[in-house]
Amino acid sequence: MTNDRRPSARRPRVAMLVANDVRLDSRVQKAAYSAAEAGYDVLLLGYEPNRKGRPSDPAYIGAAQVVRTGLHNKWQIAQWPLKDGGSPSLRLMPFRALSFASSLDYKARRRIVQRIKEPGTGDGSMKHRAKEMLWKVYFRDGDWRRTARHLLWLESSWSALIEEFEPDLIHAHDMHTPGIAVRVAEKLGRKGKRPKVLYDAHEFVAGVSMPEQRRLAYVGLEGEYVRKADAVITVSPLLAQWLQERYHLTETPEVVANAPMLHVPGDERDESGDTDSADTANSADTANSADSKEAPSLRKACGLADDVPLLVYSGAVSPMRGIATMVAGLPELPDVHVAVVRGADTEFTRALRKQAEGLGVDDRLHMVGYVAPHLVPQYLASADIGVIPILHTPNHEVALITKYYEYMHAKLPIVVSDVQAMADFTRDLGNGEVFTAEDAHEYAQAVAKVLADRPAYASRYTDDLLAANSWEGQAEVLGGVYARLLGTEPEPRTGVRAFGETSEPTA
Fold first, then answer.
1. Where is this region: Disordered (predicted)?
2. Alpha-carbon span 170 to 212, nearest angstrom
3. What is the pTM of this model?
4. β-pairing, 385-388 with 310-314?
5. Residues spanned by CATH 3.40.50.2000 within the chain?
6. pLDDT value at position 12?
7. Distance CA 232, CA 227 (A)
């Protein structure tokens, strides 16, 4: 491999890893951008499921490089330089055979995972009892190497790129990547200098709602590698406490919340009204296009006058998010409208519409599209209340979700269900009301109480509070963690680069 991804000057280098395509992951985007602005050279590696062949050409978020790969086994990757050198087919045959065998193994294991049954879910037949027994054998102890082998392929896809970059620190985002970060760091250590590893725990893995076999794999992965990282950060104080207690960490993880930027660099609008972002989500009814001459407006997207009470739910759309409670509460809230910010229609969004029709409130339920992550607060600001009606799960209890901070920066009072971290935060701030999850009557009472005195709740959002709960404040915490791990702090880059992905680096 060539060293074309290595910067020419020797600033401290940070390799960031995330198992998604980056485009809608605001936390990862902001972390990469801020680290580069702070003076680090940053290579952000993402995963693009449909990418075939070699890694993408670099894109840029400010001064940070972004490279996306597909999922490849090591034998596929080994063929690339041979093909570049014009090697004859005979020399490639062993690699092709090994790659084919690896692919067969991968597909066979996926089929096993899909076919066997979690204990207690079968119909009692001999066939289902056998499948349940196989579950107990195959998924024992959360052995992710057998049940989540795509992570080994992802490591193969990324490993050479990380080694070529020669990072001083590997920042592993979310549950999928700490093992890759630690193993690549140890490999580099055997060759010379081991980079530091920072594990960024985005969620409480044991409490995430996902298929049980996948949850067991990621719990096993995190348990194996969390103590091998040089430091851990996470998204809320309660989750930091739980991580320390669960894994007996020597220190409590630092909290770096996924808060919005107070000022988005490069978002100033020129005379033509263009913004820096064309990265709106690809739903059919995205609220406002990036070339609009007006700031994006949720109220305008709903077609509502300024005096119509408007509640908003923004975030992932699924039954566990409790949106059905908002619909169920509408009959008790005359004249109040609800906007659900979502992507493409799904079976669940259609079920919400059907629920609203059955209650006779379908004219007051609006499904609207996404905007780019950094435009969300100004998009939501025309609503009256931000709602977080999520149901009780272990992960929800410890979360301070991104949308909470986006509601704050939109200066919306918040009505939240009684999940522990966000309920406590709301009571402490006095910026909203708490209701019992799934209780539509209590939810409607909380909404009515806030609407009756909305300015008092919104007044809690002082400049100091918003600054403390902004990305700029969180980036200082992240920078402090980097500096502590590396024992040095680089000179920040001069000038200001726009926040947003581009195909060329900005000066």
1. 263-298
2. 29
3. 0.80
4. parallel
5. 13-74+150-255, 298-464
6. 97
7. 9
Which residue, 202, 187, 213, is CA-closest to 240? Answer: 202
pLDDT reported for residue 277: 34
**Could you identify the residue written with the tokens 């406002």?**
288
SS3 for 118? coil
Looking only at the bridges linking them, the beta strands covering 501-502 and 13-17 are unpaired
Q: Tokens in use for 113?
A: 């995972």
Q: Map residue 434 onto helix, strand or coil.
A: strand
Q: Are 198 and 45 in contact (CB under 8 A)?
A: no
Q: Where are the alpha helices (DSSP H) in 305-462?
A: 323-329, 347-359, 376-380, 394-398, 402-409, 420-429, 440-452, 454-458
The widest CA-to-CA distance across the chain, in whole angstroms, is 78
Q: Which residues lie closer than 8 Å to 126 by C-beta, 6 or more apart?
A: none
- Tell me the β-bridge partners of 16: 44, 171
* CB of 359 closer than 8 Å to CB of 331: yes
Q: What angle do CA 150, 152, 158 make, to 5 degrees?
A: 105
Predicted pLDDT of residue 270: 36
Q: Is 17 exposed, middle or buried (0-12, 13-18, 19+ CB in 10 A)?
A: buried
Residue 434 has phi, psi (to 5 degrees) of: -115, 140
Q: Both tokens of residue 297?
A: 């407006």
pLDDT, position 102: 56
CATH superfamily of the 13-74+150-255 domain: Glycogen Phosphorylase B; (3.40.50.2000)
The number of C-alpha atoms within 13 Å of 383 and in the hemisphere containing its C-beta is: 36
Q: Is 347 helix (H, G, I), strand (E, B) or coil?
A: helix
- What is the Cα–Cα distance from 458 to 385, expressed in whole angstroms? 10
CA-to-CA separations, 162 to 68, 184, 300, 498, in angstroms, rounded: 12, 8, 45, 26
Per 3-state DSSP, what percentage of the chain is helix, strand, and coil (rounded to 5)?
Answer: 45, 15, 40
**For the chain, how far is it from start to end, CA to CA, in angstroms?**
27
Q: What local confidence, expressed as pLDDT, does residue 507 receive? A: 65
Which CATH architecture describes the domain 298-464?
A: 3-Layer(aba) Sandwich (3.40)
Residue spans of the chain under pLDDT 50: 1-3, 75, 79-80, 82-83, 87-88, 92, 95, 98, 117, 119, 269-293
Q: And the tokens for 290?
A: 């990036």
Helix (H, G, I), strand (E, B) or coil at 259: coil
- In terms of C-beta density within 10 A (0-12 exposed, 13-18 middle, 19 or more buried), how is residue 245 classed? exposed
Are the CB atoms for 444 and 332 separated by under 8 Å? yes
Two tokens, residue 248: 């007996």
Cβ neighbourhood burial of 228 (10 Å; 0-12, 13-18, 19+): middle
pLDDT value of residue 463 = 94
Tokens for 167, please give them: 């990072």
Distance CA 260, CA 387 (A): 17
